[in-house]
Amino acid sequence: MSAEVVVGIAVAVIALVTAFVFLTRRRARRPRPMLGAVPRAPLSAVSRTALLAKIDEKFASGRFCVLLGGGGVGKTHLAAAYVRAGRGPVVWVAAQDPANTTRAYAALARRTGPGDVEAAAREGLARLDGFDDALVVFDGATDPDALNQWLPARARVLVTTTVPDFEVLGGTIPVSGFDEAEAARFLQARAGREAGTAAADVARELGCLPLALAQAGGVIRRQPFATYLDELPHAPPLEREPGEDHPPCVEDTTLAALRAVGARDSRALALAELLAVLAPWGVRRALLHRAGPDPVAVDAALGGLTEAALAESDVGGEVVMMHRLTQRAVLGRLHAEERLATALDRAFDVVSVDNGDLAGHAAALWRHFRALPSAEAAPRLDRILRLRRRSVELLAEAGAFAQAKTLGLEVLADHEAYLPAGHADTALAARSLDRAA
Fold first, then answer.
1. 170: phi then psi, degrees, rounded to nearest 5
2. Which of 231, 304, 322, 224 shows the shortest CA–CA distance to 263?
3. What pTM value is reported for the model?
């Protein structure tokens, strides 16, 4: 074989290798599909390597993994850490409301313009199963039956929940708080100071829950460990929900963090109350900007809440979320101080009647409205009923006909229950229902 031929072969091989490397790098740089509000890594995050390895083990032997544990133990952030470290397509669903699953899958469908949301969701689910290494995360799931009809045929499924019924899916991993040594180390890192046995005492009192430790650490940065527990607000304990067995002082920890942040920026307190009364799975930052006085000030206040572990945002920074336990502590404070009505008024002012998330926000506001004394509820009835009627109309306009009809029937019944017979607004509610038919 001549030297020229050898050189030619060598050049061709080098060219092929170069092209392969180039294409591989281009493919690696291509952003992967990621739908939903995947949380960012929290401040002072601790890598829970052993639990992440267990998730990998479950997926190595099957398609399902269930992270089961009480509130505040870090299930959501464990799932988010797994997602952020992965490479495959991801759909993240705030599964407290089953309607969010339909919307998430519908966003995957290759459709433009309005149409039947449920049909689009089925199309999106089929498209998801066409991806390699796809993952669906159902965060905060509460209803196994509602979830079952939307399980993919091929993609992997990761569930975070406090409900043991989800164990039927298989691949369950129990998730608890830190052990005492780990909790003390985390608390000292979060507080930025060493404390020895004092840190262990605080961690033990807080049940070693990551959420409570993160909130406590932010406060302890500005006061001694030794006085922290004595200076907690000691509010009356809230009624526990299923799956909650945390110490009563966890709510006090939230209130202490809120007090500290509010002392530095009163806008942060108002925003925390908004996050507590609006949809529990999160609020778009653009909507919170409506609280004023300007977006820069709002973002600064949200930064204070995030630093205090009272709120967090998704990886894109578009959605701001508050943990369910934090929401309940803030709501408990509003009830105790008889300020819930004022907080609802601010929420009414912020929520846009043409916002795509209105149905979720209006449903949350309706639940809180019904907890008001009648003297405070009466002057606010017109505003909340108007929001609920508009929710039905927006759902119908978006093609979510089944959801719109179900909600429309409920809204019409509420008009008939709360308003006098023959009221003009009841006719408007019936007209909203007709749009969903």
1. 90, 170
2. 304
3. 0.86
